[in-house]
Amino acid sequence: MEEYDLIIIGGGPAGLTAGIYAGRQGMNAVILERMTGAGSGYMVPIMENYPGFDVISGKELLEKMRKQVEKHIPIKNMEEVRKISKNDPSGILVTTTKGEYKAKAVMISTGSHHRRLNVPGEFEFLGRGVSYCATCDGPLFKGKNVIVVGGGNAAVQEAIYLKDLDCNVTIIHRRDQLRAEKYLQNKLKEHEIPVIWDSAVEEINGKQAVSSVSLINRKTQEKNDFPTDGVFIAVGEEPLNQVAITAGVELDKGGYIVTDKHQRTNIPGIYAAGDITGGIKQWVVACAEGAVAALIAFVEVTEESEISCKD
């Protein structure tokens, strides 16, 4: 059984930053990532608010971070963590799809996944007109009509990206104003992307592929079919918290991990960082939390080792 000072679960911005800090402190650490990349982070088409870069995609930034991490510690891809056993004097047991590991400390940075609309046709047309990733699937819709469902930063970013790909884009939003930051709203106006307000998608229609969506106006209750070739869904995220649940980590009402200001959870030796902790979901925040968690873990693991030696 392999043993580590720190096991980092998740290779997104928080996990990768923690890896850099842990490695530079000389910790014997590893990142376990359930996919080949870093999940939803790869799907961010454009960022214009990450320090040091005027414009960069999520995929490009993550690849730069991964190269930096691998100078210090290994990343094990396609290894999903299934269970974290509760802390005991001998360490924390981490069970994955490929084996078992023991660690003095564990950091959970499993992030979140795209929230579903849960309407008829959403599952049936996945990959045949329904998508949660403009970066992945947008090029397939050049010159075609598409809608983006949502009103936050992600929805507006995806709409702008699709417009730049020469798609005919319309945003569908269930409220009468967007939640996206002002800068993005201004960019939306510059791109002349229309918004259908106060409307929700009730059903996604088609035969072999998507051909329309059924909309309902939430104020007037008027219903109509809106023709479209593609439906890009960006209505928020939900925490990937199953691993935290197996460990008995405290969650809030939304299912996010509760931490103190040092990213500690209610279980000694288990930390959390990034989108899995809720709050402000920004890359720079996730990176900051990852750095804090790794540094605190280093201090506390070192202190524990010194106490053991004295005993």
From TrEMBL:
Gene Ontology molecular-function annotations: thioredoxin-disulfide reductase (NADPH) activity
Domain of life the protein comes from: Archaea
Swiss-Prot/TrEMBL GO biological process terms: removal of superoxide radicals
InterPro entries reported for this sequence: FAD/NAD-bd_sf, FAD/NAD-binding_dom, Ferredoxin-NADP_redctase_2, Pyr_nucl-diS_OxRdtase_2_AS, Thioredox_Rdtase
Keywords: Disulfide bond, FAD, Flavoprotein, Oxidoreductase, Redox-active center
UniProt name for this protein: Thioredoxin reductase
GO cellular component: cytoplasm
Pfam family, one: Pyr_redox_2
Residue intervals of the FAD/NAD(P)-binding domain: 4-290
Naturally occurring in which organism (per UniProt): Methanobacterium formicicum (strain DSM 3637 / PP1)
Signal peptide: none
